[in-house]
């Protein structure tokens, strides 16, 4: 390094993000007080100033350590004052200088001690010329990648220069190579070193520009209609912003944002992303676009992995079930068992429960209570009359108007993937040429298959295993066996009169009072009135008719209350057993009470109906004829076969009762079940008809206080039957004292509440001999 002059003391200015090379004329603005004072000091002397770049642009008051060690001595050409205490300085770079120190005692401006340097010329003429030519080639190659530099004529402006060091300094100031690179060039005192730094910088920049150009060319080759649509959408977005509709986004943007927020597996998101890309390529006014839009809206609204937390508090669940329902012990125990399993396993398998029972017994409301106890969303799907398989599995989305099935729609409405889904009236599903609906339900209700349930519309496998399915049915006879096998059957039996009384008093009264605007200060219904209402105005297994009766009283009472208010006299209305007819009218039903006298050929049987149990008398008459049998009372095929089997049994035991052989050839037998307008069918009247036939031909009376149920074989064996609780309940309400039940039904009797069995003598029979021994009264004997 050649030292031209001794150390100099010059005012200095720290530059932010700017490095100036020798031979350059440039202007810049200053607003820092120290910088402005340094310029003013320089103007009062030789107008020379030392310019050095800060290492940290954020520093407001840099010291020696924060400045680069190499700067430039410049001469100030012009100073212009601008508004806001800003001055604009025009300078010309003279030579490089090394910063030796800063005078810390001078707090007005930076007072720098520097040492000026000159270019070191250690190159021969050939090497210098080679370096100069190569530098110019690099500059031309670099400029070829930038159209802006081509227009600035950088090559032509400096092409005539022969001094290598000056050429590098002048060209570098006009190339966008960055201030850090310019500072490196400023610190290169040797021309050879400066050439090496300059070449390395340009070679690196050329490589970057080449890669950039290749990428740009590759991307440009992919620009097609999608890019054009993108540009148009951006323009539309800008137009919306100008119109103040910046919150309105396109469908694609909304779908993409919804996909980002969607809680789903990656496979699901990839499938939806493909559909969004396909939607972007469709014409907005086409029918296919409408189909795709509807599909995307549906799949993005489905709760793929969004679940609610179960409430596992057993005491709370038990309180809710007891609050909403009286009785139903078996159902409540099963729900609490399910909750207990969930508490232990944290993610136990959800069972498929099927509540089977007569109408009005609270099956649907039980499902609501279970949902409340678990804190689960409640979805009700009514399957009554559904005959199209697409109602369950959905339609193909290839046409306008396609929809997902009811299962997927229920999930969409619930907003979570683990709701309680009630499949109401599953026994009333029907089939037609459009497909087997029951078979479609097999996949839904099978724990092994519903993990990947496929809806025809969604086409993406949906996990239904977190869903708690509860089905309701009035009977299992119409449900196919394969579907029935996948559900856990829970019997919801008929209510006793006592249960109905408690339900009415604890639930129905408050509910109807609220619905009809009645308070307990306005109306009271006595216990005796409720019991009479149950006995004389309702005949059902559930409580719907009872609720309607209470509603009727509330309506009539509301009218009376308003009339009394208009007359200025207001008092509480009391409904008792004595004035019940004033509100309900004449009694609708009378109980089939037990006969007072023992009679020949008349036996009381027990029957199950869709609204509970009932008693019916079977009458047999024997008259001269030719051995024919007449069956009246609208008997079904099963009951007709039971009648023929009963007659065959009676004929087979005729010798045991000393009956003449010609009796069955010279007499006709007429079996009748009263209330002929009511259809009757079932396998439980066999022993009743056999007893009535034998009583008629032997003229032995049948005990009046006795009722029976059971099927009979040709050899006299008694077969088990169903619906025993309803039948026993009907017998008790009719005043029956003795009931004959098949021995194989002993286990069913144990499950019946003691409240129902109280006061009844239940005898178990295995053969017709056991039945006849209890039922018939021998001639000449007393009871």
The overall pLDDT average reads 83
Termini separation comes to 144 Å
Q: Characterize the main sheet.
A: 7 strands, mixed
Query: Given the helix and strand composition, which structural class is it?
Result: alpha/beta
The helix content is: 40-55%
Task: State Rg.
Answer: 50 Å
Report the uncertain regions: none
The total of helices stands at 28
- Oligomeric category: single chain
Sum up the overall morphology in one term: elongated
Explain the overall architecture.
The chain is α/β, with parallel strands linked by helices and 783 residues long. The protein is 43% helix and 17% strand.
List the helices and strands and how they pair.
Blueprint: E1 8-15, E2 25-30, H1 33-44, E3 48-53, E4 70-82, E5 86-102, E6 110-116, H2 125-144, H3 147-151, H4 154-158, H5 164-173, H6 179-186, H7 191-222, H8 225-243, H9 251-261, H10 266-280, H11 287-301, H12 314-324, H13 329-345, E7 352-356, H14 363-374, E8 378-382, H15 390-393, H16 406-414, E9 420-424, H17 437-445, E10 468-473, H18 481-485, E11 488-491, H19 497-515, E12 523-525, H20 527-536, H21 544-567, E13 573-575, H22 580-584, E14 602-609, E15 612-624, E16 629-632, H23 637-652, E17 667-672, H24 686-698, E18 706-708, E19 711-712, E20 718-719, H25 724-733, E21 738-742, H26 746-750, H27 754-757, E22 761-765, H28 768-775
Parallel strand pairs: 1-3, 7-10, 7-11, 8-9, 9-10, 12-13, 14-18, 16-17, 18-21, 21-22
Antiparallel strand pairs: 1-6, 2-5, 3-4, 4-5, 5-6, 14-15, 15-17, 19-20
Helix pairs in contact: 2-5, 2-7, 5-7, 6-7, 9-10, 9-11, 10-11, 12-13, 12-14, 19-20, 19-21, 23-24
